[in-house]
Design brief:
The structure is a single chain. Helices cover 71% and strands 6% of the residues. By secondary structure, the chain is mainly alpha-helical. A three-stranded antiparallel β-sheet has the order 2-1-3. It is globular.
Length: 422
């Protein structure tokens, strides 16, 4: 890993260094923007509850009620919705089969839909946080500012993708999460370490903080392991040869967590809807029902949350890996799984493997999501201090993908140089 990073600073790879510099500069603009509040508003002092996921992905922008309070979540929601609609809307199905041109059209529709979602969410948030103290024009004014902030982040993400390193929108989310880590460790230190007690109390409190740090990084290692784990299905092609008369063999990799954080985002969005409705209608009985049964910090709410994550894990994974199409394409290309007959048996075998792998991945997601909830319930530390969680999954996933992209770019340059020397 460190060898690949060193390659960036070689004189022959100055363009990569420029890309890295541009990426860091763009992310710095985003971090600065999270501190600029919407005119006429103040920072939120109340507990965000179900909105904490959006706040953590935005680097605390929602808590500050900054111009980037919505982040890129409206666009992500629109993108996921478009992926679901491609399965049921014929026009979108046709676009998805048109290659690069079709994907561009779908992406353009997703952006327009994301901007629409941003305005709707901006209006809802302005109403939730300002209450009945403002008039309609002020709500619309704040909504437009928040929508413009999301639109700017989408443009900034495109610039990072084209001129920087990695996927721009993913890096923006990762930067927002990482920006909150220093304050989290400061809060953990202040909450765990006692500086005005006896020597024994001070020593014991420091040991607790060190243990917290060790557990935190141990969970990171575990997440990296699971995110990198994959099940390889061997594929042989009867019409291809790898030399000496042997049939060519390749693999279809299935990640243990193919859906990544999409099921968590889906589940969080669904579970957030009753809370938003409760804030808008301001009915005491309905609000009490939501707080007691439909928030993931309550036993019933967490069970519903876990079921949503598990179901969406399967739905999204089967959207990515379609067993019927996989078996058909494999047979059309003269391929087969050793020991499995082409056709229906291949489809059933692939579905069985996919079910087993997805079950493990979904349970892993539930455990990671449950860790901060359990941690906050058994400790008296501030809500800003947590272990595990969706944010950690996002940071690890984006970091791994960016590193693979960087490593691939360096390797391709090495191959080109070796070919030119010949």
């Amino acid at each position: 890993m460190f060898a690949s990073i060193k390659q960036i600073f070689k004189p022959t790879n100055r363009d990569l260094l420029k890309r890295l510099g541009f990426t860091l500069f763009a992310l710095a603009i985003f971090i600065i923007g999270t501190t600029i509040q919407v005119p006429g508003t103040t920072s939120l002092t109340t507990d965000l509850g179900f909105l904490e996921l959006i706040n953590s992905m935005g680097g605390g922008a929602l808590q500050n009620f900054s111009i980037f309070a919505l982040g890129v979540m409206p666009y992500i929601t629109a993108t996921i919705l478009m992926q679901l609609l491609q399965e049921v809307v014929p026009h979108l199905q046709e676009l998805s089969k048109q290659g690069h041109v079709g994907r561009q059209k779908i992406n353009q529709i997703s952006r327009y839909l994301g901007i629409l979602f941003a305005f709707i969410e901006g209006y809802a948030f302005s109403f939730m946080f300002l209450g009945n103290t403002a008039d309609a024009s002020q709500y619309i004014y704040i909504s437009i500012i928040l929508t413009a902030g999301t639109a700017f982040l989408l443009w900034l993400g495109d610039q990072i993708t084209q001129k920087g390193l990695g996927n721009g929108l993913s890096l923006i989310i990762m930067a927002g999460i990482i920006a909150t880590l220093p304050q989290m460790f400061i809060d953990a230190f202040q909450g765990l370490v006692v500086l005005d007690g006896t020597a024994q109390q001070i020593t014991f409190s420091i040991v607790k903080f060190i243990l917290f740090v060790i557990i935190y990084f141990a969970i990171i290692v575990g997440v990296v392991f699971v995110q990198s784990a994959e099940r390889k299905i061997p594929i042989q092609y009867a019409n291809k040869s790898s030399g000496f008369g042997n049939q060519a063999t390749s693999y279809v990799p299935i990640k243990l967590n193919s859906a990544n954080v999409v099921p968590v985002i889906f589940a969080s969005s669904l579970l957030a809807i009753p809370g938003v409705i409760a804030q808008v209608i301001n009915n005491q009985s309905f609000t009490s029902f939501v707080q007691n049964y439909l928030t993931y910090t309550t036993p019933v709410g967490f069970i519903i949350y876990a079921i949503f994550i598990f179901l969406f894990g399967f739905i999204y994974t089967y959207m990515i890996f379609k067993p019927h199409e996989f078996a058909k394409n494999l047979a059309d290309n003269g391929g087969y799984i050793p020991g499995i007959r082409p056709g229906d048996e291949t489809e059933k075998y692939f579905s069985k493997v996919l079910t087993r792998v997805t079950s493990i991945g979904s349970v892993f997601l539930i455990i990671i999501v449950a860790l901060p909830i359990i941690f906050s319930s058994i400790t008296s530390l501030p809500t800003t201090v947590s272990i595990g969680g969706t944010g950690l999954l996002i940071v690890v996933g984006v970091a791994l993908e960016t590193y693979k992209q960087l490593e691939g770019s360096i390797l391709s340059r090495s191959y080109k140089k070796g070919y030119q020397r010949r």
